[in-house]
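Severity: low
Component: inverse-folding endpoint
Summary: output formatting inconsistent between runs
Steps to reproduce: submit the following structure tokens with default settings.
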């Protein structure tokens, strides 16, 4: 019988390679552990671990690029993008929907005047 590979086992090398904090390590372990045992995440353990580290770094304000995490984990950036979104969704985090309006600041009249002059000389 072969040993089952789990995402939780692959978190530490990625965190170490990226020089992230213990807070990120703990959150990534939580996400990976839940993916291993509770959520139906049908991805390779290395991809789940990389997605968990990326998501944990975002949540702990220690952002790394998807490319940086992908290099450390030897997976693709596309795999990380898909995995971290799925992990965050399962953990209860949601993105604003397209129906929600975003309150952007009004542009100043000075800026509008400059744009008009540039567009219509």
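Observed output (run 2 of 3):
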């Amino acid at each position: 019988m072969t040993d089952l590979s789990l995402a939780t086992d692959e978190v530490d090398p990625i965190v170490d390679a990226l020089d992230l904090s213990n807070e990120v390590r703990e959150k990534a372990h939580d996400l990976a552990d839940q993916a291993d045992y509770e959520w139906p995440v049908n991805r390779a353990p290395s991809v789940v671990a990389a997605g968990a580290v990326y998501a944990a770094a975002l949540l702990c304000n220690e952002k790394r690029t998807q490319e940086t995490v992908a290099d450390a984990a030897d997976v693709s950036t596309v795999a990380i993008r898909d995995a971290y979104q799925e992990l965050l969704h399962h953990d209860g985090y949601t993105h604003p929907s397209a129906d929600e309006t975003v309150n952007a600041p009004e542009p100043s009249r000075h800026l509008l005047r400059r744009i008009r002059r540039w567009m219509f000389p």
